[in-house]
Design goal:
Elements: E1 7-13, H1 20-28, E2 35-41, H2 48-58, E3 62-66, H3 73-83, E4 88-91, E5 97-98, H4 102-112, E6 117-125, E7 131-136, E8 141-142, H5 144-149, E9 159-161, H6 162-165, H7 177-189, E10 193-204, H8 214-228, H9 233-250, E11 255-257
Parallel strand pairs: 1-2, 1-4, 2-3, 6-10
Antiparallel strand pairs: 4-9, 5-10, 6-7, 6-9, 7-11, 8-10
């Protein structure tokens, strides 16, 4: 039997003292134990770094870097990616959670199916961890073309095989960094990403989340096509129409309300 590969878990943190301990504990509780957790603190001004430092001191598999100036979550993820030593790279934000078998199921699935990019279904929870009766279902097969039309990979569920694809960094764009990263991962793999239908993660909806202006979001999406992917204005407009079609008529099929 092949040796279990190392998984590098990337976690950016910023002023997350209320949730970060629970997020880290969900990694510590993983049934699959061959992992490293790389946490980069984006110059938090609350007790986040003290909480992380205490846990890192008690667990040798946690590696911690505290920045002296705020750089943004994309920079933190890229810094952690530079530090990563794993054959696989996965992501977990400091207010989200994983099921105990998340890594085990995902690694076994990827190795069995010779899959370089995978993601899973996940559930929404509130600030105290209560289920919000909303499931985001993973699309079983996700092509580059489909991912280009809309971001179907929840970042907290995604994993890619860095040993074959290389390390992938988030581009320096204001928004849609996760979308760009997973699109690049599928492109490098030269085959579709695979979705695991099980609910293996929990995405926390926070009360202090700022609702983004819809017009601003459309601008960011347009700039994703025009500036990041380098498409002309007419082609970017075409892909924006594809995005809107997916958003209103296709994506809802993968959002389920639970009883």
């Amino acid at each position: 039997m092949k040796e279990n590969p190392l998984v590098s878990v990337i976690m950016p943190v910023y002023n997350s003292s209320k949730f970060v301990k629970t997020a880290i504990e969900s990694v510590l509780a993983q049934v699959y134990t061959h992992w490293e957790l790389i946490i980069v603190d984006d110059a938090s001004t609350d007790d986040t770094s003290a909480i992380v430092e205490k846990l890192a001191a008690a667990h040798s598999k946690i590696r911690f870097l505290k920045l002296t100036a705020n750089q943004g979550p994309g920079y933190c993820r890229n810094k952690a990616t530079e530090m990563a030593r794993g054959a696989y790279i996965a992501f977990l934000d400091s207010d989200d959670l994983w099921e105990r078998e998340k890594l085990l199921i995902q690694i076994n699935f990827m190795r069995k199916n010779n899959c370089a990019v995978s993601f899973t279904s996940y559930l929404h929870i509130d600030e105290i961890g209560k289920l919000l009766k909303k499931r985001i279902k993973a699309m079983p097969i996700l092509s580059y073309k489909k991912q280009r039309s809309n971001n179907y990979i929840g970042n907290l569920t995604g994993m890619y095989h860095a040993a074959s694809l290389g390390k992938i960094k988030s581009p320096e764009i204001p928004k849609r960094q996760d979308w760009a990263l997973w699109l690049e991962a599928i492109k490098r793999s030269k085959k579709p990403a695979h979705g695991i239908v099980q609910d293996l993660a929990f995405y926390r909806i926070r009360k202090d989340s700022v609702s983004a202006n819809k017009v601003e979001l459309l601008k960011h999406n347009f700039n994703f096509y025009k500036n990041h992917l380098g498409y002309s204005i007419p082609i970017s407009i075409y892909f924006m129409s594809c995005f809107l079609w997916e958003y209103f008529f296709v994506r809802p099929k993968y959002i389920e309300t639970l009883n």
